[in-house]
Design goal:
single chain, 443 residues, Rossmann fold, six-stranded parallel beta sheet, elongated, binds nicotinamide-adenine-dinucleotide
């Protein structure tokens, strides 16, 4: 099939490359000309495991192409995916300007029937807005062309995006048109040969499914973080509780890790957007608001522990920071807990020596060169001479540390571990003050 994807971010590029990899003829379009020029040279500017290999292979095979021309992009695909950003507006609701820009561009340029697929995460009712934006452009040029709009939310996770796209639990499509059902079956045919995981539903149900899924996962995290706060105050080790409840199949082990809060481009914005949607229909979203509030408080907890340890005086202190990205295997720092910690430390007059396996470049892009931030090339360089070590991301490279060596590198034997990577008993044996999340001694 000829397929166009608007937006070459985490979702758009993974979608385009994956569909090209199963044999579709894909054109990816982005308004970011520099990004398109890099992609045309086979350079993937985001860090996503395996993505560069698939992009290069498909580009060389000729099944994946890139363009910054709207006309070319609209002409190419009978199926057009919209995978552009939907960042939070000032009130927390999803900003649909990029989605609607693409819709208008399609209406302005289309010359034959198109199926427009909303892959961006968008509030209930957006498909109707996209339809109206396309129709308005067609009307303006008195065109009788037909088109359909459907919803196909994406459930991939950064860090394992290719794997998730290709082997996801389900493919949700919201539509009321048999014609769209048939076309989407052809598009996703290569993914459903063994097991038909295509789920067709109402458009509005598909739109809400995406928000409900993210809100549920965020709720699990905030729930555990609330439990961790209780555990700290009650002298209980939350890790024992986590195993105790995770073993119940009704609860399960996934998404119940206590930590320094969730971040990224999805959970924070999607929980806020869903809460905002609730308010617009006259419902007070008590639970969603609590999920968000607990997370905000949790993101401040590492700074609180550090500040308390140094009796409120962090001025002039140097803090080693391991992990900048919001989770491992990505360079994405959108709403990352590391940012809350860094900003609070800078405000308190501290200096940071940070290391991240892939996100240093992104960190420099966000914060620029500043005297109170040293971005280290090696994990070990970051701790040298620091007053304490803080860990914000559970990268594999941090899972083991030689505690004897660490003690010799740090000025003070202090670890604030936002991901519960080490054993309180081991750290104690080596003479560390170990502040983790929800573990005894962590307050
Ligand atoms: P992103 O910010 O990484 O990429 C968006 C891209 O769209 C950018 O490259 C931008 O230049 C481009 N763009 C903006 N306006 C455009 C236009 N008019 N025409 C063409 N391109 C345009 O965003 P993302 O993380 O890929 O997310 C995209 C959508 O998918 C969002 O709605 C997000 O909520 C949703 N989503 C994201 C993830 C994730 O893990 N990142 C997972 C599932 C769903």
């Amino acid at each position: 099939m000829n397929i166009t994807v608007f937006g070459t971010g985490y979702v758009g590029l993974v979608t385009g490359a994956s569909l090209a990899d199963v044999g579709h003829n894909v054109l990816c379009m982005d308004v970011d000309v520099a990004k398109i020029e890099s992609l045309k040279k086979g350079i993937v500017t985001i860090h996503e495991p395996g993505l560069d290999v698939v992009v290069q292979r498909c580009f060389e095979d000729g099944t994946l192409n890139f363009s910054s021309s709207t006309e070319e992009a609209v002409a190419h695909g009978e199926l057009i995916f919209i995978a552009v950003g939907t960042p939070p507006d000032e009130d927390g609701s999803a900003d649909l300007q990029y989605v609607l820009q693409v819709a208008a561009n399609i209406g302005r340029n289309m010359q034959d029937y198109k199926v427009i697929v909303n892959k961006s995460t968008v509030p209930v009712g957006t498909a109707d807005k996209v339809k109206a934006a396309v129709a308005a452009e067609l009307e303006a040029r008195s065109s009788p062309l037909e088109f359909d709009v459907c919803s196909n939310p994406e459930f991939l996770k950064e860090g394992s995006a290719l794997e998730d796209f290709n082997k996801g639990a389900r493919i949700v499509v919201g539509t009321d048109s048999d014609r769209v059902v048939n076309i989407m079956r052809v598009c996703y045919g290569p993914y459903i040969r063994n097991h038909d995981k295509l789920m067709f539903m109402d458009v509005r149900a598909a739109e809400l499914t995406k928000y409900a899924a993210n809100a549920m996962l965020a709720t699990k995290i905030s729930f555990m973080n609330e439990m961790s706060q209780l555990a700290e105050r009650l002298g209980v080790d939350i890790e024992q509780v986590r195993k105790g409840i995770g073993s119940d199949p009704r609860i399960g082990y996934q998404f119940i890790y206590p930590g320094c809060g969730y971040g990224g481009s999805c959970f924070p914005k999607d929980v806020k957007a869903l809460a905002q949607t609730a308010r617009t229909v006259g419902y007070v979203p008590e639970l969603l608001d609590a999920v968000e509030n607990v997370n905000t408080r949790q993101k401040g907890s590492m700074f609180e522990k550090l500040s308390k340890h140094f009796n409120g005086d962090l001025n002039g202190k140097t803090i080693a920071l391991w992990g900048l990205s919001f989770k491992p295997d990505t360079d994405d720092m959108r709403e990352a807990p590391s940012r809350d910690l860094m900003e609070a430390l800078w405000a308190a007059g501290a200096k940071i020596q940070a290391f991240d396996p892939v996100a240093s470049k992104e960190c420099r892009r966000i914060y620029g060169d500043r005297p109170d931030l040293v971005l280290c090339e090696q994990r070990n360089d970051a701790v040298s001479g620091a007053d304490a070590l803080a860990i914000c991301t559970e990268w594999k490279a941090f899972r083991f540390v030689d505690l004897k060596w660490l003690k010799s590198e740090l000025k003070n034997p202090v670890i604030v571990d936002g991901r519960n990577l080490y054993s309180p008993a081991d750290t104690k044996e080596f003479g560390f003050k170990y502040y983790a999340i929800g573990r005894s001694d962590s307050l």
